[in-house]
């Protein structure tokens, strides 16, 4: 992928998308997803890994709710990656990630992921640029391994504008249903906006092979980003074209 | 590594090695290993992965006993990899392996390993040569990831002659302490000797970067192979030079 300047990429839906019609489309997509997931699970041959990254308050949690609610939870698992534990830090950075990759038939959602190990670690100065480069290589090999084992890897960056992010973080302080999400660290991280954009751009440059690209999703409007992710997931599942297996007893 | 013709490599100790003196050396090495392992564990910074491969009856179990007995088991773990379970087969071939890699401070021994997935699978015709090549690439990237996280990876192939193997398999049928190891499959596998040599040679050619070479260990004599592995492990630990950390309370 050529160098990406995030500031030049849109954070809002194209002008011809409207909330009401898009939400209607999203509802249809969700119905399709329910059927496709059921066949994926029954066929037990392929799997899907959805990687969600984005700045704090870019709406990862809400997106998961909007896209995956209604799908049979037996076939969908969400894994949130927080600060690594002591045991996790005693291993290579992909150790805890690899354990959570989807089995055949499953859709696995990563709320944050192995990419944190080349994002926050760099902004906080915990790793050198050289180490980040080595990790990029390891990440590309890892995702290729998953793909070769039958996993479709979909990577989404929820791209919010700095302004929108500031407003959302502010809301966390005042909305009683959102206060629990507020951490003192949020304020500090918000101030590191430019640093995060730089390391994200580096990720998009080095970890976006044509076989496993990043989707940069305009994310200022919740309805639009949910639609974009649901659409990409639907298309990926349609491509896998999962089929109910024949009943071995009846042969039909 | 250039093409290796296994049949040209020795399966017995060089003429100037004698059993009694070598066993005395092995005893000394084990004492050194005990001290080095204790410091490795205390320092909690590096780890060691010992990968053991070899034909059936090449003496992997006995070697583990001879080299690692006496070392504090708190710092040494042995993992035997058998036929994959249904759950393991539902993931990429490195999934179950990655979970067993050593934490900092630990020595981990793999009795068989991820290499089975490019050995028995090929002899049994379960994967194509093309798939084997892809797995070689994945294995090299995986081992590099471990090394970059501070793990020393030592790979040993226990090289027994076909004649010695046949005798040992025969012994399994008559020695009451060894009968439990005999499987009907052994006989079949013994007959596949030439096929195994070919796929092993392919592994040594493709998965032996200078930073992570295979050690081909002459393995017809149990005393010699234990000595060779203990020596390589001792040297690797000396290179890591683990130190007891300063006592944070006394500063000494």
From TrEMBL, chains A, B:
> What InterPro entries does this protein's entry cite?
P-loop_NTPase, Polyphosphate_phosphotransfera, PPK2-rel_1, PPK2-related
All residue ranges annotated as the Polyphosphate kinase-2-related domain in the record: 19-237
- Quote one Gene Ontology molecular function term: polyphosphate kinase activity
The superkingdom listed in its UniProt entry is Bacteria
- Pfam families tied to this protein: PPK2
Q: Which UniProt keywords apply?
A: Kinase, Transferase
The processes (GO biological process) annotated in the record are: polyphosphate metabolic process
Q: What Gene3D superfamilies has UniProt attached to this entry?
A: P-loop containing nucleotide triphosphate hydrolases
Signal peptide feature range: none
User: Would you identify the family this protein belongs to, as annotated?
Assistant: Belongs to the polyphosphate kinase 2 (PPK2) family. Class I subfamily.
This one is known as: Polyphosphate kinase
């Amino acid at each position: 992928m050529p160098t990406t300047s995030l500031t030049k990429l849109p954070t809002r839906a194209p002008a011809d998308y409207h909330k009401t019609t898009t939400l209607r489309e999203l509802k249809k997509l969700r119905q399709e997803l329910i059927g496709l997931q059921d066949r994926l699970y029954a066929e037990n041959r392929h799997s899907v890994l959805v990687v969600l990254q984005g700045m704090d308050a870019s709406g990862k949690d809400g997106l998961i709710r909007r896209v995956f609610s209604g799908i049979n939870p037996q076939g969908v698992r969400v894994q949130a990656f927080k600060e690594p534990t002591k045991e996790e830090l005693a291993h290579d950075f992909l150790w805890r990630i690899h354990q959570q990759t989807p089995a055949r038939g499953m859709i696995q959602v990563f709320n944050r992921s192995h990419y944190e190990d080349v994002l926050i670690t760099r902004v906080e100065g915990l790793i050198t640029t050289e180490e980040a480069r080595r990790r990029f290589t390891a990440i590309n090999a890892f995702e290729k391994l998953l793909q070769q084992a039958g996993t479709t890897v979909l990577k989404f960056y929820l791209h919010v504008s700095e302004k929108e992010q500031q407003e959302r973080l502010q809301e966390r302080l005042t909305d009683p249903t959102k206060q629990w999400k507020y951490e003192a660290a949020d304020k500090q991280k918000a101030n590191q906006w430019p640093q995060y954009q730089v390391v994200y751009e580096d990720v998009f440059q080095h970890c976006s092979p044509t076989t496993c690209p990043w989707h940069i999703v305009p994310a200022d409007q919740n309805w639009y980003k949910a639609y974009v992710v649901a659409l990409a997931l639907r298309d990926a599942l349609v491509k896998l074209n999962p089929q109910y297996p024949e009943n071995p007893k009846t042969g039909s």
